[in-house]
Amino acid sequence: MRCRVAIVGAGPAGLLLAHLLDAAGIESVLIERQSAEHVASRIRAGILESGTVDLLRRAGLGDRLDEEGMEHRGIYLQWPGERHHLDFVNLAGRSVWVYGQTEVTKDLMAARRRAEQAAYYNASDVEVHDADTERPSVTFIDEAGDAQRIKAEIVAGCDGYHGPSKQAVPQAVRHTWERNYPFAWLGILADVAPSSNELIYAWHPDGFALHSMRSHSVGRFYLQVAPDEDIAEWSDDRIWHNLATRFALDGWKLDTGTITEKSVLPMRSFVTTPMRRGRLFLAGDAAHIVPPTGAKGLNLAVADVALLSRAIADLLLRKDSRAADAYCETALNRVWRCTHFSWWMTTMLHRHGDDFDAELQLSQLRRIVDSPSAATELAQNYAGLPIPLSTLD
Ligand code: FAS
Ligand code: PHB
Hints:
By secondary structure, the protein is α+β, with helices and mostly antiparallel strands. The chain has a domain at about 5-70 and about 100-175 and about 270-350: FAD/NAD(P)-binding domain (3-Layer(bba) Sandwich), CATH 3.50.50. Helix content is about 35%, strand content about 30%. The chain is built from eleven helices and 19 strands. The strands form three sheets. Strands 1, 2, 8, 9, 10, 11, 17 and 18 form an eight-stranded mixed β-sheet that branches. The longest helix is centred in the last third of the chain and has 28 residues, at about 320-350. The model has no long low-confidence stretch (mean pLDDT about 95). The protein binds arabino-flavin-adenine dinucleotide (FAS) and P-hydroxybenzoic acid (PHB). The site of P-hydroxybenzoic acid has 9 residues, from loops. Arabino-flavin-adenine dinucleotide (FAS) binds near residues 13, 44, 162 and 295.
């Protein structure tokens, strides 16, 4: 089988790339290891930058987002006895939106079905070949057990942290940075109306806690735990008790409800370069992972894909390779900015080290609340940098 672009991975990066290429009249094929149901059921990110929202709207994917999403002016920063609001609209001129990645993925999958473009789910033994040539290809076993080879002009590796695409970049030229943090997040979904109108990021001696949400009736909460935490040790009561302790504030109460999902998420920073090798381009978690404290992971994947969609369209439709040749450098500039911000938020808010470290963290938090320039720096990074030009521009 031949196609113009073979996309490995049908998470948000792969699905959005397929959608943006379709908008430019470029056909693609998606090859995904999991079932469509599995992909659509994943619970992951919750915050969309306004740049991401604007792009989704312009791509015709904004209807449900506008109906069900929740626009937030900012976040709260908390430490024992104090909770302060940071207003991103006043500080940085833009808001953020609460609309789960699960919903974004469902919207993208529906758009893919409407476009009637090929997608192989439940693919196994996926491998990228000849990335260094003008004739790259992807081989795999399809869900019927038949061997397939897709010959393409471009291969996009959108297969996340564990995907095979990055392996197609020769080890000798690959450079990887990785930082595993000495803590993890215990995340829960609960059928309970949020106890706050916007997200609360709380520093506490017992550990970090985050009050997020998915709707006016579903709360999303995270607790800092040990990296090897056994979720079986965490009863619902123990989770709610720890959340109430870490968010405690005079005159405020945390409402509780039925916990419908709980999981432990590892915390790591990871970057691999180059993000391009010949006709293979990496985007999203295939090239970088950030700790979710800065709400960057999904938004960074969207920015990669906007940039990549334009580079592929220039290359295939206009024989102009400038954007493709600059893809790696341009993408990495934003990757490292988001990697630094996510590392900074994570090391500022999570308990690790000794009491000296704790005093440094509290001093940093007070500085943000007391200094408009410090608050503006956080707001500009959290609310997001402008999204690169895509095939929609
Ligand atoms: P994804 O990992 O979403 O998608 C990659 C796709 O490739 C998957 O569908 C996978 O099945 C497929 N794949 C893998 N190997 C393959 C193979 N061999 N062949 C074919 N397909 C293959 N970000 C936030 O901002 N906030 C959060 O709270 C947050 N929570 C997260 C929780 C978890 C458990 C994880 C893993 C990530 C979380 N993230 C969060 C980051 C997350 O949202 C990612 O940034 C986002 O999913 C990136 O999208 P993709 O690059 O498409 O990668
Ligand atoms: C979420 O709602 O899942 C979420 C929100 C903000 C973060 C991380 C996760 O920083």
